[in-house]
Model the fold of this input.
Amino acid sequence: QPALTQPASVSGSPGQSISISCTGTSSDVGTYNLVSWFQQHPGIAPKVIIYEVNKRPSGISNRFSGSKSGNTASLTISGLQAEDEADYYCYSYTGSRTVGVFGGGTKLTVL
Amino acid sequence: EVQLVQSGPEVKKPGESLNISCKGSGYAFAGYWIGWVRQPPGKGLEWMALIYPDDSDIKYNPSFQGQVAISADKSTNTAYLQWSSLKASDSAIYYCARVYGAHTIDYWGQGTLVTVSS
Done:
């Protein structure tokens, strides 16, 4: 199962907004509204920040938002803060016969 | 409170067997899929396999089928990931995760570091 495609790195200054793309195919992102995004700080387990394309779990800041168009999902972080510096992974459901698929991960640097 | 608590770090030699565990609490363990995710040092996340503890239905990532075995014991609310013969390339952090509807990860274990070295 090929991974979903994410940029290797993105950066932004405090207060700015950034977006991270996640490109899949018509077999995953394009068919299912079941895309999640995870934030992972060094040495810590990933944490879900967006699920089902654009829903936020309880306790996640509304600075995080998700969207999808065709085979590409996107995570937008507005009002960047130093604590947002982390790795971000997208994930998509791929159907009932298989496990899902992750993106390769994007390292966010807050300048 | 939903919790997934994994077993501790392991150091093994190539060719040895290994069994790591993930114990769920705070929810109906048998009714949610549990998945295992591999993260090699400095690299990204890879789905390995999913299991539904209530009936032990299993889905494997084809890349890992035959390389590992996944099981679950609903009487002890514990899922397992097993190797019969480890390789150096199995060195990684392994996370378990709760997956509802077989499609959405909502909780993660803390991870188990496995080091395989001669």
Notes: Chain B touches chain A at residues 35, 37, 44-50, 59-63, 95, 102-106, 108-111 (CB under 8 Å).
